[in-house]
């Protein structure tokens, strides 16, 4: 019981990390071998690779393929303790976090990396009819909805009602919406071919609705255009400059320059907006930190809170003002780099706290920016995939699309996946899906079997 | 729309199969290329490979790895229509089955292969505390329970209560119980090593409770003894000749020759009994067929019902009297062989129904037993695995155990898995788990995150 023995040693510098997403996990990993006690708390026992959630929602991958148990990832790091729990309050003066079951976890430094959830712009009742895609449960729920729609179409006795089962509305033309619409079009056209006897899945209608003037609005116009062309080639009905004004169980109402249109559909998916975790508000109330409109905590140039250098907020929960004056986007690379930056800062502080003769810098500090400098996001580019052999990539020094972009997308997502086994399983399944056009993880699970 | 065109042709001989398990799916496959319209109805959209459910429950495999979408399996068989639905009643005189949503499906011949569910011998309230392992939802629920117990132990503030979180009671010493107990012991001893900081997972106590005088009572005594020795070597506390008399949220009461014992535990798993699907009773009421005590329908030597040669019952739902006077066991090979037998019988009937000059027998009839003969189960043997590199196998002409039996077990289960992709993914994961001692599908999913 080596670990238990360590617990009785005098208290060391302690860091509490809330959230095991890209930012929180990376921060914990970058504190490896530091003379610091790290506690990582998450409501889940796994790290989730969110960029591939849409592949779970469309039956291409299994949930476990894109999730890595946090304990397994961190088992070789004896200074990290993983706790399954939910933080509900902070005691800023006492330097502690309170869990739902009443336990208080003390800290010297706090890193809040609690991420974001779906945001329906005040129309929370839309959530029932148009689920978002932020968690594994969301993904299996959407998978169930999509697959059940085809089953219901096959069973529908009234031929007039078949089209509403075979109409899918994806709200939001960002990367998630584009990826979902492209994959769903492929499934309808190719994977489900020969599987039904009464309906023709190829008659499926997929609407991708985006309020801005083009899909992928964070990309340059030329790549948006490439993506839109790829989507149209797959048969996706792309509706830009179009707003969703209502969502019911059997319809979605759209408004554009041409007026209002009611689309009869049984299946809508929400990919339009996210809002920061409610822990942002909790933290703001406790510390006086400011929130932006999306509920993100506005942070200092070193990711800490004003007047609270011991509290850092990173990842999707943080509003970090970028060089262009706009907040950094809520993407994995920002969270990862902030996690690395904050970990370096904390290592430095812990070293200074130990006395006037600090030991030499640890190996992973060598050659990197000095932690005292403000955080600077190194933007290596953005990419989105549209479907089989189609993607767009903007690496700033080069822009490309189609097959090459898709290969780069595959490669980058594979190497970013945590845990080698997942890389291998995902590679096998992608290769299989590519060559056979099949998707084998098409399970309808949940509490209401059948109809 | 080739298939839709076919639907307007004059009605052909029609077979309705209820249930897409081993028996129902095999029957459908064996009717390939027959001039027969087959409808396969299941409450699920996938065929489930139940023998590996315990590996999902213990985080070694993902649900999709042991499930194959029925539509995908049968897509190249245009005479089969798959319907997602639940049969609630039969109209025996009108030759139709009624679905929950009111649709009636007509048939010339009916095959009922609806399987079995957990059976608590009249103590249905035990189901809440000791879930059984029959469906994918059961497996992910048990996975959640097992993993949460370790998390709760790590979080437990009262050291007196840690042991009850680390005590697991498996009820039933059949193959499922033995496989679960062995795998859980391995996980506690090896997989979770280094993952916790306060508790020592190796201190986990696993009780395997069996009413009979030995585990694996359907095996010969020598193999039961080998299995028990393997379990004890893994640290499992094997309790034979012991009955469960009560199950509460925090205890299981055992009774044996030594008297009564209350075991403090938060986690029990039920592997003790199954009962035939309630469709057996529905069928018995409609046809006057007899049921046995486990709710199975007693069938004729050709698997049909007395006075109803057009109705067959196969698999776990059927009570087929074996040569020793006892019913055939509820195992996959029985269901598969019954499915094949019944399909041959139906092909023969359809051929006779078409006129005096039947076409030559189809390729897959060649050389097999003539369908007019009664069904005869060819028992190729039974096997059970205990954990890593340990299993017992009785192939009747040879009995073996340990590493060789485990390799044979692996091989047979791999080749039996439906769909090539699943074989590949399972092989990759088994190899990975074997060499790294890890199990990566350890996800706690469900509606109550954290505690």
In short:
The structure is a homodimer of 451-residue chains. Chain A is of the alpha/beta class and 451 residues long.
Report the largest inter-chain contact. Answer: A-B, 68 and 68 residues
Strand share of the residues of chain A?
A: 15-25%
Structural domain tally of chain A: 2
Percent range of helical residues of chain A = 25-40%
Secondary-structure class of chain A = alpha/beta
Overall mean pLDDT score of chain A?
A: 89
Summarize the main sheet of chain A. 6 strands, mixed
Task: Name the poorly predicted regions of chain A.
Answer: 1-8, 357-371
- Amino-to-carboxy terminus distance of chain A: 52 Å
- Number of DSSP helices of chain A? 13
Give the tally of β-strands of chain A.
25
Oligomer: homodimer
Give the CATH level 1 class of the largest domain in chain A. Alpha Beta
CATH topology of the largest domain in chain A: FAD/NAD(P)-binding domain
CATH architectural type of the largest domain in chain A? 3-Layer(bba) Sandwich
Q: What's the alpha carbon Rg of chain A, rounded to whole Å?
A: 23 Å
Kindly report the spatial arrangement of strands forming the biggest sheet of chain A.
Answer: 5-2-1-9-21-20
Using the alpha-carbon principal axes, give the shape of chain A: globular
């Amino acid at each position: 019981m080596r670990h238990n023995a360590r617990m009785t040693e005098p208290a060391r510098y302690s860091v509490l990390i809330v959230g095991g997403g890209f930012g929180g996990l990376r921060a914990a990993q970058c504190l490896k071998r530091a003379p610091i006690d790290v506690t990582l708390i998450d409501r889940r026992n796994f790290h989730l690779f969110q960029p591939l959630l849409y592949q779970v929602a469309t039956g291409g991958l299994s949930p476990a393929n894109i999730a890595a148990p946090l304990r397994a990832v961190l088992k070789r790091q004896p200074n990290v303790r993983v706790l399954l729990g939910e933080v509900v309050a902070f005691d800023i003066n006492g330097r502690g976090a309170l869990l739902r079951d009443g336990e208080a976890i003390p800290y010297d430094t706090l890193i809040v990396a609690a991420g974001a959830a779906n945001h329906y712009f005040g129309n929370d009742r839309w959530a029932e009819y148009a689920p978002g895609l932020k968690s594994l449960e969301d993904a299996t729920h959407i998978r169930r909805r999509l697959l059940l729609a085809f089953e219901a179409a096959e069973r529908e006795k009234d031929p007039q009602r078949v089209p509403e089962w075979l109409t899918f509305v994806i709200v939001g033309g960002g990367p998630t919406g584009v990826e979902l619409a492209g994959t769903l079009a492929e499934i309808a056209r190719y994977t489900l071919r020969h599987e039904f006897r009464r309906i023709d899945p190829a008659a499926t209608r997929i609407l991708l609705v985006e309020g801005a003037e083009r899909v992928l609005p964070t990309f340059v116009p030329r790549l948006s255009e490439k993506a839109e062309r790829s989507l149209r080639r797959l048969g996706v009905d792309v509706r830009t400059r179009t707003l969703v004004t209502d969502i019911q169980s059997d319809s979605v109402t759209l408004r554009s320059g041409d007026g209002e249109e009611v689309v009869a559909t049984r299946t809508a998916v929400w990919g339009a907006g996210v809002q920061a975790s409610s822990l942002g508000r909790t933290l703001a109330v406790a510390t006086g930190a400011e929130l932006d409109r999306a509920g993100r905590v506005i942070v200092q140039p070193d990711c800490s809170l004003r007047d609270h250098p011991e509290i850092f907020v990173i990842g999707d929960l943080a509003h970090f003002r970028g060089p262009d004056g706009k907040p950094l986007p809520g993407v994995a690379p920002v969270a990862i780099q902030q996690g690395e930056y904050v970990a370096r800062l904390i290592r430095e502080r812990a070293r200074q706290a130990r006395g006037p003769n600090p030991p030499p810098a640890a190996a992973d500090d060598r050659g990197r920016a000095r932690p005292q400098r403000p955080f600077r996001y190194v933007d290596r580019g953005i990419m989105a995939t549209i479907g089989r052999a189609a993607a767009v990539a903007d690496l700033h020094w080069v822009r490309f699309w189609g097959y090459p972009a898709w290969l780069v997308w595959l490669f980058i997502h594979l190497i970013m996946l945590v845990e080698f086994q997942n890389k291998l399983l995902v590679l096998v399944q992608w290769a299989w899906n590519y060559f056979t056009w099949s998707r084998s993880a098409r399970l309808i699970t949940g509490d209401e079997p059948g109809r």
